[in-house]
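Long-time lurker, first post.

We've been arguing in lab meeting about whether N-acetylmannosamine-6-phosphate would sit comfortably in this protein at all. Half the group thinks yes, half thinks no, and nobody has a model to point at. So I'm putting the question to the forum: if I give you the sequence and the SMILES, can you give me back a predicted structure of the complex? Inputs are below. Any interpretation is welcome too.
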Amino acid sequence: MSRLPYAAGALIVSCQARPGNPLHGPEPMSLMAKAAVDGGASGIRANGPVDVAAIRAEVSVPIIGIYKVGDPSGVFITPTVESAADVVRAGADVVALDGTLRPRPNGHTLATQIEWIHAELGVPVLADVDSVESALVARDAGADAVATTLSGYTNGSVPTDPDIRLVADLAAKLDCEVVAEGRYRTAADVRAALDAGAHAVVVGTAITNPLAITRWMVEAMR
Ligand SMILES: CC(=O)N[C@H](C=O)[C@@H](O)[C@H](O)[C@H](O)COP(=O)(O)O
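Top reply:
Settle the argument with this. Predicted structure of the protein with N-acetylmannosamine-6-phosphate, as tokens:
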């Protein structure tokens, strides 16, 4: 049974810009979301209630809401039930949250956080994991689906390529939908993720971050 509001093969575009990026803010992100949907995206992933609300007003596709709070070196993607409630009240249809094995900021367990979101907010939970082990634990804790979002971000330096092997391993081992996310840069990358068993693919930087894309080009021209 599909727990996510996306048909198989969906492209979900992540529209996020951190402070310091000239596109930071609800207006640029809602325009990015509209462009993505006009281009055929089936969903949007967005950060924080302000951006989620602005995007909700602009597009009708299901939104995966996250709320980055705290220190990026630890659990910071929707770390608390309050942060989940904020993005759902702003219009998110799915909550994505940190599903790694790292300690959570307020002492809650992943299972109690997911249980509360299901009971109080009534939306599916997508666990952003970094390994097969964390994905299995997240699924046991009640996650409706898992995403490879945090692979490569929890120990040491960040790789260049997407973790397609993790997508294949999760698709083979889990009884839920697997979302491929993290460092998907090209059409060949997203095709490979679907071929490896992904239900959907999330692409962020390569579509919605011209600052980063420009840097890639400039670097290659040195
Ligand atoms: C690790 C982390 O914090 N990932 C975040 C999760 O929401 C975003 O910063 C990413 O842009 C998103 O996952 C999409 O990935 P990419 O931008 O590589 O296509």
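For your lab meeting: The CA atoms of residues 56 and 91 lie 6 Å apart. The radius of gyration is 16 Å. Whichever side wins, do check it experimentally.
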